[in-house]
Amino acid sequence: NGMVTAAQGLAALVVICLLRYLDTFAVIFSINQVGIVPSIIATLVLLSGVSAIAGLVRGDMWGFIPLYFFIPAATMFFGFSLIPYLPLLIEPEYRRLLVIAINSCVLLYAVFLLLRMMDSDVILPTEKY
User: Fold this and answer.
1) Per-residue pLDDT at 123 exceeds 90
2) Measured between alpha carbons, how far apart are the two ends of the chain, in Å?
3) In a 10 Å sphere around its CB, with 0-12 CB exposed, 13-18 middle and 19+ buried, how is residue 52 labelled?
4) Which of 52, 56, 119, 123 could bond 11 through an S-S bridge, CB–CB 3.0 to 4.6 Å?
């Protein structure tokens, strides 16, 4: 149950991130947007975030797959921090590095959490004498 709660915590981080940067998505999807590529990337990031939330809230392991796309894409393409407002506490020239560090730590935590969930699902056969 603790691992499901941790997965739900990751889902909460994604929800907070999407809500925090909702205005960015509104600008990208506005009619005034010129290119189609930013809209496609934003759509993929948004869909991966929503599907990660759907899977992680239920504690399903498939929810980690879209999460593994969401975190790097949100970091590289948009510079979103999964823990909002924390990068605002340091100097502007170091904020990008802090966003990368925060999101990398969350990604590593998600990888180790999935590995632990997979280990707990393994049922080893017992030897009978």
Assistant:
1) no
2) 33
3) buried
4) 56
pLDDT score recorded for residue 119: 85
How much of the chain is in helix, strand and coil states, percent to nearest 5? Answer: 75, 0, 25
Are residues 67 and 10 in contact, defined by beta-carbon separation less than 8 angstroms? yes
* Cβ neighbours around 99 below 10 Å, total: 20
Question: What are 94's two structure tokens?
Answer: 């170091």
Q: pLDDT of 91-101, one tens digit each?
A: 999 999 999 99
Q: For residue range 25-65, list pLDDT tens digits in order.
A: 888 777 676 677 778 888 899 999 999 999 999 989 999 99
The label of the residue with tokens 């948004």 reads: 46
